[in-house]
Write a structure and sequence with these properties.
By secondary structure, the chain is an alpha/beta fold. The protein has helices spanning 14-25, 44-50, 65-75, 95-101, 124-137, 176-181, 191-201, 222-240, 248-268, 273-297, 305-311; strands at 4-10, 32-37, 54-57, 80-84, 89-90, 109-113, 116-117, 144-146, 171-175, 205-208, 214-215.
């Protein structure tokens, strides 16, 4: 049994899932492949088996983001378990090796993650947003280690919004020993952010590896983008208690900042004046839609379940806030739902 596992939840992954499996077959590190299928009807389950995966099957209604990842971690045999989503394609054959190198940065590193690269056909606004965010996590392009010192572990969770608390399990690797002590929570959304907070408060460190990239981006319609942002900011409200400021002055300042950053990036890339105008218009529209979703999502507690369901890209009607500040000790033991 290889000492490293790769675990993926899937439901009707289609051609993108096939690309993920093909990229995994090219990795330089031998690994076990574990897949949890929650009701695929497009052949994803059979495709996973053809690639040698051990496959778990669950009913769609039993799927939760944290719960499924705990299931995958529980059956994976590796001392380290890399996590992907069905549409996160390793960018090259060295992806897994680079992720694993993150655990060599410090003895307390328990979770490692890498960036997303936009797909070749990604819209300019999506491309620039992803490139800017992940570049901000390591301005000099070097690996970064994040931890909370003992006196910081009781900080209000709102102070971990942004870089310090960010983590994504669409491109990550966990040390099994740390997960056995601090598993995922059974939360409907943002399970990766919650895991990072729990790990940091338990005394572990997380590492960001800029070179361990996956190809992962979405080009949503305007409606889908608004609903996706609704889900994301509802998650931020549930995890951090974050409520997006509604002030027109604040929103205008954000829009100006986005456009200013995009303009500088376009100039640096040598874009023509006409190209800059078209791209800036698209960036402006994208940002306005995202802000609208953010304002609604961060006020999801004030909306009825039926309205939340209609606004959610995942069709989720609930609102499930966590009291992470009232509980300074993270959950312990595999599958804990504390």
């Amino acid at each position: 049994m290889p000492d490293v596992s790769v675990a993926i939840p899937v439901r009707d992954g289609g051609g993108l899932f096939a690309r993920v499996l093909a990229a995994l077959a090219e990795q330089t590190v031998e690994h076990e492949l574990v897949v949890c299928d929650s009701g695929s009807s497009d052949g994803s389950l059979e495709l996973a088996r053809e690639h040698g995966a051990r496959v778990l099957e669950i009913a769609p209604e039993r799927f939760t983001h944290g719960g499924v990842r705990n299931r995958l971690m529980g059956v994976a045999g590796g001392a380290h378990v890399a996590l992907l989503t069905q549409d996160s394609e390793p960018a090259d054959e060295g992806w897994l090796a680079r992720l694993l190198a993150g655990f060599e940065l410090a003895a307390d590193v328990a979770i490692v993650y890498g960036p997303y690269r936009p797909r070749p056909d990604a819209a300019p606004a999506v491309r620039m947003e992803l490139e800017r965010w992940f570049a901000s996590l390591s301005p000099d392009g070097s690996p970064q280690v994040e931890r909370l010192h003992a006196h910081e572990r009781s900080l209000p969770v709102r102070e971990l919004v942004g870089r310090r608390g960010f983590f994504t399990d669409a491109n990550a690797c966990l040390a099994r020993a740390a997960w056995e002590r601090v598993p995922f929570r059974e939360v409907p959304y943002a399970e990766d952010r919650v895991l990072a907070i729990d790990m940091l408060r338990a005394g572990y460190a997380k590492a960001f590896l800029p070179g361990a990239a996956v190809i992962h981006s979405h080009d949503y319609t305007t409606s889908e983008q608004l609903r996706r942002c609704f889900d994301e900011w509802r998650g931020l409200r549930e995890v951090y208690g974050w409520r997006e400021p509604p002030s027109p002055v604040h929103l205008l300042a954000q829009l100006r900042g986005e456009l200013r950053a995009a303009r500088a990036q376009l100039i640096g890339q040598g874009a023509t004046a006409a190209g800059r105008r078209a791209t800036l218009a698209a960036v402006g529209r994208h940002h306005v839609v995202c802000r609208a979703g953010a304002l609604l999502g961060s006020r999801a507690d004030r909306l009825s379940p039926s309205v939340r369901r209609r606004l959610s890209l995942e069709g989720r009607a609930g609102f499930a806030p966590l009291d992470l500040d009232g509980e300074q000790t993270p959950p312990t033991g595999p599958g804990s739902t504390r």
